[in-house]
Every structure is written in C-alpha cells, then in structure tokens.
Design a protein that fits this description.
2 domains; 254 residues; Rossmann fold; two-stranded antiparallel ribbon; 10 strands
C-alpha cells in the first residue's frame, strides 16, 4: 500500500461532515503526519468557516465544484489527503470526477466514508435513494445526527444494506466524534462497488473452488470502469440510468 493516501468524505450538507473530518484528522493521524484537507467553497460559505482542525500539520484549501464536466482541480502535496465532497452535489457526479482525478494524482485510495444524517433521512424518505449511492461507494458509514431517531430506526437503516451483503462498516458519531478514528481510517477496502479495485486483483473460481479465467465478458467485475458501475452507468443520451434526486430540495430549510 502506498504511503500517499487520499480519503473521500461523502454526505449531505448539514450532516456534520466538518466536525467528523476534523476529528479524524486530529485523532486519527500521528502528530508528525502532514495532511491536506480540501472542502468546497460553497460548503465553507454555508458553514461560515473552515472545519475546526487543530492538527498543526494539516493544511486546508478550498475548491470550486462546478459539476462532473469540470471535475476537481486539486493540487495535493501532503502524504495524506482528505477531500470532502460538496454537500449539495450529486454523489455519482462527484465520485466520477474523483475517480478521474485519482488516476493521475499519485495517491492511492485510503477509504471512502459517508457521514449519514440520520435525522434528515428519517424525516425525508426520498433521501434514501441519494444515500444509497453514497453508501454503494463507501467503506465506512458514520451514523450522525441520531437525536430524535429511535434505535429501531437506526437498526432498520443498517439492515437495509446488510440484507444486500454490503461489507461496509457502520460506526456511530457522538458529538462530532467517532470512537476509534484510526479504525475508520484503516486503508482496507470494504465497499461493495468495485470501481476503485484493480481488475488483476480479482480471482475467479469454479464450483470446486479451483482458480479459473472468466469465459464471458459479463463475468468480469466492474473494476476501473465507470460504465459498468450501476450508479455511474449512462444511457446513449448521456444521462445516467439511475437518476438521483436533487438533495438540496430534500434537506430541511435553514
């Protein structure tokens, strides 16, 4: 594994991404570790400030998110980089741009994290489709804003993905902090999407458990191919097969 790692943080605006990423940097990295945090200009405007990171060796920068066509224009220099996706962006668009940027960045993917705004999802069921996309790409789901939400609802939310055999971890956030930041940042792939995997890492076996080569094209995983990922796949007219709702219209006002 490369020593140069990048982490992508997904989630909707108001879900607590700023506090969570600050906690991960402050308590998940060594004191000597140099890191760089990128957040969107529009998120910073909405928050009124940059994330309150106290780590002395973390630099913070903003980027302009203008959609998948323009992509991400990031100049990373530290060994560890955190990119907080714009909280009103379409996660499929953002992941596609991030995927393109990553290929020439000189970094390897550490993990993709989703900060789930439980209270907002509980209040607006249409947000589930938007978060389904985020969690499809995620290694860890951080359950935040659970005040006013029953434990039963939280378990049902997790079961939504467990029943589909999602391998991602589910961890609680309490007052903007996670119990074990180092565990969250452990660079171990646990996402169901194979987009960021190397195709040559896959091993195919027959019914007897013997290794074999795939015979048909459809047997090959979607590693490294956005056109084969169910949330990134596009129709001939250029639109995605799975159209996500505009998250900005679904979030609580204020």
């Amino acid at each position: 594994m490369s020593e140069r790692l990048v982490y992508l943080i997904l989630g909707s605006r108001g879900g607590g991404r700023a506090s969570v990423v600050a906690d991960l940097i402050d308590f998940g990295l060594e004191r000597e570790a140099e890191s760089q945090l990128f957040v969107s200009e529009t998120d910073v405007d909405a928050w009124g400030r940059l994330p309150a990171v106290r780590h002395e060796r973390c630099g913070q920068s903003t980027y302009a998110w203008n959609g998948v066509e323009s992509g991400l224009d990031l100049e990373a220099s530290a060994k560890t980089v955190f990119v907080v996706a714009d909280g009103l962006s379409d996660p499929a668009d953002f992941v596609e741009s991030f995927f393109s940027w990553l290929g020439g960045s000189g970094y390897e993917l550490g993990r993709i994290l989703t900060v789930a705004d439980c209270l907002s999802i509980h209040g607006e069921s249409k947000l589930l489709q938007w978060y389904d996309c985020c969690i499809h790409f995620s290694d860890v789901v951080l359950l935040n804003n659970r005040h006013g939400v029953s434990n039963k609802w939280v378990e049902e939310f997790k079961d939504r993905y467990r029943k589909e055999y999602y391998p991602c971890l589910f961890e609680f956030v309490k007052k903007g902090r996670v119990a074990n930041p180092s565990l969250v940042l452990e660079p171990e792939a646990r996402r169901i999407s194979k987009l960021f995997d190397e195709a040559d890492e896959w091993v195919f076996v027959d019914e007897e458990g013997e290794e074999e080569e795939p015979d048909e094209e459809e047997d090959e995983p979607d590693a490294g191919d956005p056109d084969r990922d169910p949330f990134l796949r596009k129709l001939v007219n250029g639109k995605r097969e799975k159209v996500l709702p505009d998250v900005g219209t679904l979030l609580p006002a204020g």
